[in-house]
Amino acid sequence: MQVNELVAKYVQLRDKKAQLEQAQKDKLAPINAMLDKIEGVLLNQFDQLGVDSMKTEAGTAYTTSKSSATVADRDAFLQTFVIPNEAWEYLTNHVSKSAVEAYKAANEELPPGINWSEVRTINIRRS
Q1: What percent of the chain has pLDDT over 90?
Q2: Which of 13, 40, 66, 72 is deepest in the core (most CB within 10 A)?
Q3: Which helix (H) or strand (E) holds 63?
Q4: What are phi and psi of 33, to 5 degrees?
Q5: Collapsed DSSP state (helix, strand, coil) of residue 23
Q6: Same domain, yes or no: 75 and 117
Q7: By residue range, what is the domain housing residue 111?
Q8: Contact (Cβ atoms closer than 8 angstroms) between residue 114 and residue 69
Q9: 16-30: average pLDDT
Q10: Cα gap 125→38, rounded to integer Å
Q11: 10 and 67: one domain?
């Protein structure tokens, strides 16, 4: 095969691959929407019942928490917290989630300039 033919075939295959991936996404969209809806209903029921998990014949539904710490105001974080306290352990390429989590637990507040989010999710384990 000539280079032109190889490039043409490559482009053709790449386009076909993109079409198949999009078709798969389209087929999965209603399934993913229903899974999200079921997770929301389960979280709501767990909140109403005051439970974190529930075992059934079909499997076990349980919650987990996902947290993240990001810098909302870099200057405030560095100038009013890290530098005066020589709290260098809070610095990585990103803010150290575990250090912020420990500070939050010890002080019942966040260091200045930090955003914190925590999301509870439902997980399902097959029985």
Answers
A1: 83
A2: 72
A3: strand 59-71
A4: -65, -40
A5: helix
A6: yes
A7: 52-127
A8: yes
A9: 97
A10: 14
A11: no
CB atoms within 10 A of CB 7: 11
Contact at 8 Å (CB) between 60 and 96?
no
**Same structural domain, 62 and 33:** no
Q: Which residues of 83-106 are buried (b: 16+ CB within 10 A; e: fewer)?
A: eeeebeebeeeebbeebbeebbee
Answer yes or no: is pLDDT of 97 > 90: yes
In this structure, the answer to whether residues 30 and 88 fall within a common structural domain is no
* 59 shares a domain with 39: no
How would you class 14 by CB atoms within 10 Å of its CB: exposed for 0-12, middle for 13-18, buried for 19 or more? exposed
Give the total number of structural domains in the chain: 2
Q: What is the pLDDT of residues 57-82, one digit of tens each?
A: 999 999 999 999 999 999 999 999 99
